[in-house]
Amino acid sequence: MTAPHVSLPDHPTHLPELDPLLSPITGWTRAHWEAMADRLLDGLLPYASPGFAQYRLPGPPSHSGPWSDGLEGFARSFLLAAFRVAGSDGRVGPALIERYAAGLAAGTDPRGEERWPPITDRAQPMVEAASISIALHESRRWLWDHLDDRVREHVAHWLGGFVGADVNDSNWRLFQVITEEFLASVGAPHSRGEIDAGLARLDDWYRGGGWYTDGDGRKFDYYNAWALHLYPVLWARIAGPRADPDTVTRHRDRLSEFLTTHQHFFGSDGAPVHQGRSLTYRFGTTAPLWAGALADASPLPPGRTRRLASGALKHFAERGAPDERGLLSLGWYRPFLPVTQRYSGPASPYWASKAFLGLLLPEDHPVWTAPEEPAPVDTADVRLALPAPGWLLHSTAADGIVRLVNHGSDRLPPPPATADDSPHYARFAYSSAAAPQTPQAPDAGPDNHLALLAPDGTPSPRGRIHPLGASGRRAASWHRARGRRIETVSVVQGPWEVRVHRLDPPFGTPVREGGWAVADDTAPPLIRTGPGWALARRTDGLTSAVVGLYGWSDAEGTVAKALDTNAVGHHSATPYLELGDGVPLLVTLVVLSADPAVYGDPHTLRTGTTASADADGTVTIRFPDGTLERVPGLSDAPMSPPGPEPGGRS
User: Fold this and answer.
1) pTM over 0.90
2) Closest CA to 502 of 611, 427, 587
3) What share of residues in the chain are helix, strand, coil (percent, to 5)?
């Protein structure tokens, strides 16, 4: 094939009309997904190299440099193109197929001007090789089978750099599995031992309940969704009869169990919970939903699968992702570099292409033809304890917000190694409606953090999280701050979270605790403060409040205001309490709600939840709905078992 002459579209791709009959919640159908795929692919064309082997997008380079970043632009968009081509049974304009065929030829020509960087030990091309391998497999009938023999040899030789190479001991092991399985499928040199070792390593990281850690340690995040569960499904598609049936069944069963949980991580507006790294992949969070349907492993009704996935894609599309150029920027809604990492380059966001996996399902598949069904957050309050990652999820139907209490994921290497805190792992809680503050060090921001303050005001980090369990309506952990142990138990009910902190601060050490950061592009949040309480409220009503219930009698409520430190909006505000001298027991109420019944009466918000402590340290909490919870004073006391409580699931 020769490089095609490509003419740019005269205007951005327009979305089809909403379909309220088939999709009564989002209005979106398969046609919307196809239109969005086309918009994303068209938006890349002005940044293609002459031979289409590189897509050099605007933005700061990754630590791998522009050469690797250009390969990333090809590989990740090729994944999207392959899903679009295969999903339409090849009924797309020939230019789409031809430009990726041309890019493959130019990128793998060892003497070509647009040759790709080689696959070497622990290098970024390993990541991109996996995307290229998946795309080649899924589009095989329309692309690989029509390449010249010489080009196929070059492609196999370039991918073959994986064989015998040293791979990062994380989800990267699966890049090797995918790439070498594709090589096996085309009769190219590969190592069956390396494929088997990568799959075995995945088993080492399984922690139960559908949860993998991304390498050794407690590294729980969306890589569980868009990598550790996704790649085994795609590997099985490539391997076909070469795949061990027991291994495939094991992966399918784990994915099915994970999806019973993952469906709860999306707010009613489609926003995923904002936690973990690589959040610039945005709607890539929906990939395992489609993978479950593709592998016939989903426990979800097909109409719910589409409602969740379409809800997320629509959420970002309505908030500027992709932007007016049809590009996905490094950010969440707008460009926002604090959600990126050193490895993030201008084309990194196109790992979101995985969200379009559903296009591989035929048009008459039930995920496309069944009427949309509500997501869990649409119909009832949910409370879900997740012991493996040490999380406690609680969502409310009245405002459609999901909140995730964190007592188990810190993404630190196993001890004795250490690393700095990340605001996307170290906070006590995350949400679908809010993002953590990401200011410059040394102050990581007061939101959802309890800190001992140094004389110069520098807050202590949370550091390594030591889980104590998650069950029923509570989760607990301990960490060290300035050499002192701090133990925290979180108890949730509806939109409320009460944190019970037991600490031993040095005499004269100030203590600070913050609630949720709320952010908005249009105007600074409204703030109100008083003795022992503070709140911040957006113009649309989303309210964050923090109230001292016990031990905060001398604290004044304060609100920290900031600009350009939050992924959700330009203006942000965080209510917090500060005590001049720490005490052994602190009990704090933190609330994030957009329900007027919760935030409408500030007096009730401040006084509706109470806490008292017995002589033995047992804390009794009474929520506004009358629910009582007692937290024992002993650190090793077992948490209350889950029970059949209205409005909750455990």
Assistant:
1) yes
2) 587
3) 35, 20, 45
